[in-house]
Amino acid sequence: MTKRMPRAQRRAQLIDIATQKFGEKGFHPTSMENIASAAGITKPVLYQHFASKEDMYVAVIASIGEYLREQIASYSDFGGTTEDRVRAGVTMYFNLMATHRQTMQMFFGKEYISDDVHTEIRRIQDEGALAIAEVFTATRNVERRTALTLGRIFAGSIQSSAHQLADSGPDELHPDALQAAIDETVQLLTYGVMSFQGAPEFDDE
Predict the structure, then answer these.
(1) For residue 35, what is the domain's CATH number?
(2) Is the Cβ–Cβ distance between 136 and 89 less than 8 Å?
(3) Domain with 93 in it: what CATH number?
(4) Annotated Gene Ontology MF terms (predicted)?
């Protein structure tokens, strides 16, 4: 007799499978039947964990957001200058775009589902944007609301550069091209952060 998987473990498994399926085809072409079949369960079992496909999609985005915040948190005690911090964060994002391209594109994607889902996804994205902004601006005097705006700009800039690099063809994926893209993005973002007054306890001019 097959042992029943604990509920939390089953939910985590379903989120992993849904992440793969949504990443491959997008929200609308992917059905709950597709996900249930890939998980080796029936749809009624799937609906025991998620009330709807929209609910599952939000859970997937939340899971990606949590992973990103964990990665960002590893830089919270990162020393060095503002440029050092920006470079570490930008490099992390570019590496994630290279190794988890479909997942990152889904997280930052523009696929419209519903107003409620869009609002929830934006909230999750803003949590990540604020987290990376707080790392980038740790040496500057920046209010929380301004940091959130900066975080959105940072994430958008990094996302745009990474997507452009990924869509430019095999030649652009050469390590030298990747490093050049990182350097350009770091230069632009560092200039923006340094426009704010430095915090008294730091001197990284």
Answers:
(1) 1.10.10.60
(2) yes
(3) 1.10.357.10
(4) DNA-binding transcription factor activity; transcription cis-regulatory region binding
